[in-house]
Amino acid sequence: MDIKQAKQEVRERIWDLLEREKAVREPGVHGHIPDFIGSERAADLLATLPAWKSAQVIMCNPDRAQLPVRIRALEEGKLVYMAVPNLADEHPFYELDPTKLSLPPSEAATSKVAATVAPKVNVDTIRPIDLFVCGSVAVNRDGARLGKGAGYSDIEFALVRESDLIGPGAVVVTTVHVLQVVDGPLPESAHDFRVDFIITPDVVAVCDTPFAHNM
């Protein structure tokens, strides 16, 4: 079995499990970053981390599961970068500056509204990232993760890393349901990155290979 097929088998297993256990808000999770129940609590736990408290600039994926993270970041005055759909633009990120928004964070942080109120920017104008937040389908305690299979998070991370916008002090986290945390290894490709922290609705887990994204 090749790596691509092995990754997809894990995704299918997790998607099936989440739907079977009714751990997502709506059915039809296959092919998506799961909008898991408890995402607000996960965002609250994330906000207890020193890395969150000290972060001034956050990059966060645009999926619904991480909406509470984006809202909280804006409410706390943090600058938020969020990818445009499919990164299909020469300016592939929205810049959500809480000092310039005319709408409340709960509206501005949604992907649809951000497209109407936030300017698009490229890596040449992005400020250095303090905290990188990604959604995942599956993640293990070593920090290895699988997205939905489109590779967008990997591209986002590569863009900012290759532009020296992710420094050695930056922290990478994912918010997930506990059912998305798997035991044992996950298939990985050369372009994959790892996370430093896994945040579930109830637990903050420090990965066994912290700051592996800088290796």
TrEMBL record:
<keyword id="KW-0436">Ligase</keyword>
<dbReference type="InterPro" id="IPR002698">
    <property type="entry name" value="FTHF_cligase"/>
</dbReference>
<dbReference type="GO" id="GO:0005737">
    <property type="term" value="C:cytoplasm"/>
</dbReference>
<dbReference type="Pfam" id="PF01812">
    <property type="entry name" value="5-FTHF_cyc-lig"/>
</dbReference>
<dbReference type="InterPro" id="IPR037171">
    <property type="entry name" value="NagB/RpiA_transferase-like"/>
</dbReference>
<dbReference type="InterPro" id="IPR024185">
    <property type="entry name" value="FTHF_cligase-like_sf"/>
</dbReference>
<protein>
    <submittedName>
        <fullName>5-formyltetrahydrofolate cyclo-ligase</fullName>
    </submittedName>
</protein>
<dbReference type="GO" id="GO:0016874">
    <property type="term" value="F:ligase activity"/>
</dbReference>
